[in-house]
Amino acid sequence: MRSTFEEQLNNLHLRFSEMGMMASEAIMKSVKAYVNHDKALAREVIENDRFINKREVDLEKKSFEMIALQQPVTSDLRMVVTVLKASSDLERMGDHAVSIAQETIRVKGEVRIPEIEKDIADMGDLSTGIVEDSLEAYLKEDSKMAKEVADQDGNIHIEGKQINDACISAMQQSSDNVLSGSSYMLVESYLERVSDYATNICEWVVYLNTGHVVELSQKHVADEDEE
Amino acid sequence: MRSTFEEQLNNLHLRFSEMGMMASEAIMKSVKAYVNHDKALAREVIENDRFINKREVDLEKKSFEMIALQQPVTSDLRMVVTVLKASSDLERMGDHAVSIAQETIRVKGEVRIPEIEKDIADMGDLSTGIVEDSLEAYLKEDSKMAKEVADQDGNIHIEGKQINDACISAMQQSSDNVLSGSSYMLVESYLERVSDYATNICEWVVYLNTGHVVELSQKHVADEDEE
User: Fold this and answer.
1) Which of A53, A171, A222 sits opposite B171 (nearest CB)?
2) I need a labelling partner for B135 at 20 to 30 A (CA). Which of B169, B172, B183, B200 fits?
3) Spatial distance between the Cα atoms of A90 and A79, rounded to a whole number of angstroms
4) What is the ipTM of this complex?
5) How does residue B218 score in pLDDT terms, banded at 50, 70 and 90?
6) How far apart are CA A120 and CA A35, in angstroms?
7) Cβ contacts (< 8 Å) between B108 and chain A: which residues?
8) Alpha helices, DSSP H only, in chain A?
C-alpha cells in the first residue's frame, strides 16, 4: 500500500535527523581521536563518512520523488525543500570531521601542547553541543530555540581566537611547537566552520516555521583599524 | 503577461551563472588582496559578499515558486533542484573569499615570505580557473567537461601540500615567520575547500544530464602507515 504524503514526510524528517546525529557523532569522534592521538578512531571517522554522503544522496532522491509525484505546495513543499538544502550542511559537517581525522593521522608523534589540546577538546564539545541543539530545534520546529542556538556561535569564535593566539605564541617560543601548533590552528578553523553549518540549520528551522529566509550568523569581520 | 516555464528556467540558469561569476570574482579578488596586502580590496570583498548571499536567497525563492506554481517533473524539476542545491556551493565559495579577505586584514605589517605568497597567488589562479571551468561545464551542460574539471582538483591538493610544507619549514627556521606562515596555511586550506565546491558543481552538471548523483571528488585520505 502506498504510504500517505504525511507518512513520507515524517519519514523524511526522521531520516534527516538521523543524518544529523551521524554528522554530530562524526565530529565528536574526530575531535576525540585528535586529542587522544587515536589513529584507529580517526580511520573509523574517515571510513564512515561514506554513510553520511550516502544518506544525503538518499534524502535528495526521496525529496525529488516526493516533489515530482506528490506535488506538494506551501508548508509541505517548504519542509521538503528544507531537507533538500539543509542536508548539504550536514554533509559538510561530515567532511570537516574527516579533515580533523586526517589531521590526527598526519600529525603523528610530534611534540604536543597539552593545554591547547585541552582547549581544542573543549571547543569540540562546544561545537558538538551547538550541532545537537540545532537538530533539537529542527525536530521541535522551534524558531525561538533556533535563534538562541545560533547566538552561541559567538562563543565558538571567541574560543577559536584564544586557541589561535595560544598557538601563535607557542610556535614563536619554540620551533618544536610548529608542527602541532599549525595543526591545532587548522582543526580550530574546521570547528568554527562546523558551528557555522549548525547556524545554517538554525536558519532553516526559522524558514520552516515562517517561510522567511533569515541571517542568524554573526559576521566576524576583523575589526582592525585602517592603516 | 506571465512568462512561460521555459523562459523562467532560462532566467534561473542565467541568474545562477551570474552568481557563479560573482563567487569566482570574489575569490580572485580576495587572493589578489591577500598577496598584494591590499586591505581596501579585502574590505570590498567582505562588503560585497551580501550580494552573493542575497542572490542565493533570490534563487531559493524563485526555485520554490517555480516548483509550487508550475509543478515541473523529470528533467525540468531536476534543473530547478540543481539550482536549489548548487547555489549553496557558490554561497560557500563566497564565504571562503571572505575568510581570505579577513586574513588580509588580520595579518598586517608582518614579515612576509614572498616565495610562498607567489605560490598562494598561483594556487588562487588554479582555484579560480577550476571554478570558472565548472561554471562553463554547467552552462554547456557538458558532463564530459565536468569530469575533466573535477580531475584537476588533484593538482590543487598537490599544490596545497607543497605550500603547507614550505610554511612549516619557514616557521621552524625563524619565529619571525610564524604569523605569516600560519596565515598562509589557513588561506591554503580555504582555497582547497573552494576547489572542493567547484567539484560539487561538476557533480551537479553530471546529475543534470543523467539524473544520477555521482562522486567526482577524490578523497585525500592521509596514507601514512599504521603505527
Assistant:
1) A171
2) B183
3) 16
4) 0.89
5) low
6) 8
7) 224, 227
8) 5-36, 39-70, 74-106, 114-140, 143-151, 153-173, 178-210
For residue range B146-162, list pLDDT tens digits in order: 999 999 988 999 999 99
**Backbone phi and psi for residue B31, each to the nearest 5 degrees, phi listed first:** -70, -40
Of how many residues is chain A composed? 227
From chain A, pick out residues whose CB is under 8 angstroms from the CB of B73. Answer: 68
Q: Which residues contact B151 (CB under 8 A, 6 or more apart)?
A: none
Q: Which residues of B touch A85 (CB under 8 A)?
A: 60, 84-85, 88
Quote the cell numbers at residue B116: 610562498
Mean pLDDT of B95-104: 96
Say if residues B19 and B54 touch (Cβ distance below 8 Å): no
CA separation for the pair B22, B40 (Å, rounded): 18
List the Cα angle B41/B45/B48 in 5-degree steps. 130
Domain residues of chain B, as ranges?
Answer: 5-210
Task: Render pLDDT for A88-132 as a digit per residue (tens, 0 to 9).
Answer: 999 999 999 999 999 999 887 678 899 999 999 999 999 999 999
- Say which residues have a Cβ less than 8 Å from residue A35's Cβ, sequence separation at least 6: A117, A118, A120, A121, A124
Placement of cell 564565504 in the chain: B95
Class of domain B5-210: mainly alpha
The grid coordinates listed for A89 are: 550542511
